Amino acid sequence: MRFVRRHILTVAAFIVLVYLFIPVAVVGVLSFNDPPSKYNTKWYGFSLDAWTNMCGIPGVCESFIESIKIGLISTFVATVLGTMVAFALVRYRFRGRKTTNLLIFLPMATPEVVMGSSLLALFLNMTFPLGTTTVIIAHIMFTISFVVVAVKARLQGLDPSLEEASRDLYADSRSTFQHVTFPLVAPGIAGAALLGFALSFDDFIISFFNAGTLVTFPIYVWGAAQRGIPVQVNALATLVFLVALAIVLIAQFVAWRRRKALQADMASRDADLKALSMDALSRS
Amino acid sequence: MVESRKVEDLHLRNLTKRFGDFVAVDDLTLTIPAGSFFALLGPSGCGKTTTLRMVAGLEDPSEGSISIGEQDVTGLRAFKRPVNTVFQSYALFPHLDIFENVAFGLRRRGVKDIKPAVESMLELVELTPMARRKPKQLSGGQQQRVAVARALINEPEVLLLDEPLGALDLKLRRQMQIELKRIQMEVGTTFVHVTHDQEEAMTMADTVAVMNEGRIEQMGAPADIYELPETVFVARFLGQSNLFVGKRESSGSDSVTVAAHGQQFTIPNSRNNAPGGDVIVGVRPEKMTIVDSGDPIPDMHDRIAGRVVDVSYTGVSTQYLVKTSWGEEITVFEQNDVVGDQSEVGDSVEVHWARDHAFGLDGTGTSADDVESAMPVV
Amino acid sequence: MPALIPTSTSEAPPQVAARKPRTGYLLLAPGMGWLAVFFAIPFVTLFITSLQVPTGASGVYAPGFDIANYGEALSQYGHLYIRSFIYAGLATLFALIIAYPLAYFIAFRGGQWKGLLLVLVIAPTFASFLLRTYAWRTILADEGPVTGFFNALGVLPEGRILSTSIAVVAGLTYNFLPFMILPLFASLDKLDPRLIEASNDLYASPVTTFRKVVWPLSLPGVVAGTLLTFIPASGDYINAQLLGSITTRMIGSAIQVNFIQFRDYPIASALSVMLMFIILIVVSIYIRRSGTEDLV
């Protein structure tokens, strides 16, 4: 009990983290389930069927591939457009900055159901056919803001004297962008793209409004939820989770290794410095 | 590869920079001789960095021109000028290693076979073993040397240094001062060094220009400026000065006599910069000596009586604060080269100095309060 | 994900001397054009649609100015707004209470594990939103241990959790928790730990230190986090539909059903317009209050 009282914060934090992962664990465990019917909500028995035969249920893999395709296209477009806007915001003077900022902020503060329905209203009034195109348009729309915010943060964190130094060292503006600005902002852009893909891949509400007869992975899951979700869906979702987790953990690990190496370097450098100053002392 | 070579003078003519209503640099005309180590010294906001940035081409002058030798570079973009900069925070490219940082300028100019040049430059700054490290893995002093190497490898006509030692600790700063001087002697390029640290400017530069509010107050060799400041600002910014506001009483063939606070002080004519009758008498604290009241005072010395209000022992010297009968506090530095015989707080003392060490400043429009209330400008 | 944290800093003018402004507009045009055409203009069409009148044919409406659509929408679905905002408000409150200790822990005790802990906070969102919500059906099942535990305590009015408002609020709380944790962390992480030491040094108990130092300084994060939870939660209908019953439907369901199943576009649009309008009012009052009275 004393342990708990002394470590109450640690214990609370740990419990919250576990809480965050409980449903993920349930999704994962149920991917090994062997339910007699389509209702995969409680444990029946162990089976690897869903993992060995992921595309066994018609429609699942088609919707999965559709979602990946939509995610890649919309992420690419949104990343390019959002990065351009971020550069304009940080590097250029222009009229209407307030309006621009508002237009970037609002999509992040609007409920999905409002964005989805208003975009549908636009397409209906234009009698634009619903399908992959409309879903991609929608995904680009709600992803741009996140890209702008992420890249802008990175750009603002960039020391302006780095670009000045480049200009001072005979690089014109194109060359400065190519050799200094872009390489330094690239990690921010990559992060924004990953986030954009995650948002697009997992989006249900906005997609559902604008999909027409198109079936993305979340739309498939939604439809299946009414009549029982096949185990394959759990397996696919678990796979996505594991791949995404692996990517970020590896990135974390690389950053951690680099930090460690840096610390080791610093230590050896300090030793070098000491030796050097001793040397200087003995010479003088 | 870096040998002394023919470099040209840097001329600034009527250089002015305005930001809105604020005049950062005010009609500056200046020639910096080729191959000199020139320091622009002044408090923050005095316009020294703006001047430097205009020379670098990072800021466009509102008026005036900049030329190197015969070549007018005023309208030239930064990347086309034969001028390179060592930035205040070094601005080393974090994504490139040391070799590539140093090679950056050569690569942009399309120079072929850069390896020997970069290697000999790294040798000059003693960083050969660090070539493949990233800037973050280097200490502050090493990063500073990379910044110097990265600029110097382009063999600029003028090297600009913007507070290059500001981020280093005191010991390292001393070391780098010597290092930079050595490098400057070896390459013979004109160095223009911007700093707010008067000691740094005096140690390194052969010519110091003291800047204030966009103008140059005084320019010359460090010792000359220190020994004979021409304005109150310089007297206070470059070291400390005790100043007494007075009126000229009489002028002789080689000296003037000034009356201040009921006392008389004498200044050699050669050291008097006051054009009219209002004269501020200045004496550096280390030129003053403290004696007990009643002790004999040497000939040709002036004196002030007062009471010791504070004594600070600083090791090499002791710093006294003496309050005069009219309430001004004067500072006196005494070398600790005598055993015992220290004055203590409350002692009645006399402060005296050789008349040849006094200097006269223009006191027009300056009241005693102005001088006393002006705290040292550091 | 940290991109989700709105920084409240006012727009600083560009640090670098302005270049050709034309390039700036060229960079802005495609992205902002996209947002104008597919985000801003749709609001206009939504509003126009909400005033359209039926033509008799299913799903076909004529231009008009039928304010009565709003009256009809309100009389049919008004109670859903109230329910949605109550659910979203409760979920926001619970999320704040749950998120604070974890955010505080990561900010002050995270040390070299900070990055990893933040990854763990967002990692659950890598698994499908719908499936994680669906998983709560298993966790909160009638015969499951959670329901059994609370029934043993005798605190469940209906004897079950699933298909009640409790399940819906629990689902909302869970789903938007990361959006509460991240902004809270961001503002707590900026807090100098020496301030806490100084407060302790100046005779403040841990509780007083929290009330007088930590909480006020974390308010920007609290405001951002509550908004990022409340706004999406009030428009959400997935939790209500997967975990609740017909008596727990939220306004989002009504909008979706009217748009997609009933094809009653004017009513659906009126519902959507009103939802956005109410949220804008609630949020601006909230920001103003927290901005003037607490943040200063």
Describe the protein in words.
The complex is a heterotrimer of chains A (about 280), B (about 375) and C (about 300). Helices cover about 80% and strands about 0% of the residues of chain A. Chain A has 12 helices and no strands. The termini of chain A are far apart. The relative contact order of chain A is 0.13. The model of chain A has no long low-confidence stretch (mean pLDDT about 90). By secondary structure, chain B is α+β, with helices and mostly antiparallel strands. Chain B is built from 9 helices and 20 strands. In chain B, the strands form 4 sheets. Chain B has a 6-stranded mixed beta sheet with strand order 6-7-8-3-9-10, with helices on both faces. With about 300 residues, chain C is an all-alpha fold. Chain C has a two-stranded antiparallel ribbon. In chain C, strand 1 and strand 2 form a beta hairpin. Classes of the chains: A mainly alpha (about 280), B alpha+beta (about 375), C mainly alpha (about 300). Chains A and C meet through helix 2, helix 4, helix 5, helix 6 and helix 7 of A and helix 1, helix 2, helix 3, helix 4 and helix 6 of C.
Give me some keywords for this one.
heterotrimer, B: 378 residues, alpha+beta, OB fold (Dihydrolipoamide Acetyltransferase, E2P), 5-stranded antiparallel β-sheet, 9 helices, 23% helix, 35% strand, elongated, disordered C terminus, C: mainly alpha, two-stranded antiparallel sheet, 1% strand, globular
Q: In the CATH classification, which architecture of chain C applies?
A: Orthogonal Bundle
Distance between the termini of chain C: 28 Å
Count of separate DSSP helical elements of chain B = 9
Structural class of chain B, by secondary structure, is alpha+beta
CATH topology of the largest domain in chain B: Rossmann fold
User: What's the SSE pattern of chain B?
Assistant: EEEHEEEHHHEHEHEEHHEEEEEEEEEEH
User: Which percent range describes the beta-strand content of chain C?
Assistant: under 5%
- Any idea how many domains of chain B? 2
The gyration radius over C-alpha positions of chain B equals 24 Å
Predict the CATH topology of chain C: MetI-like fold
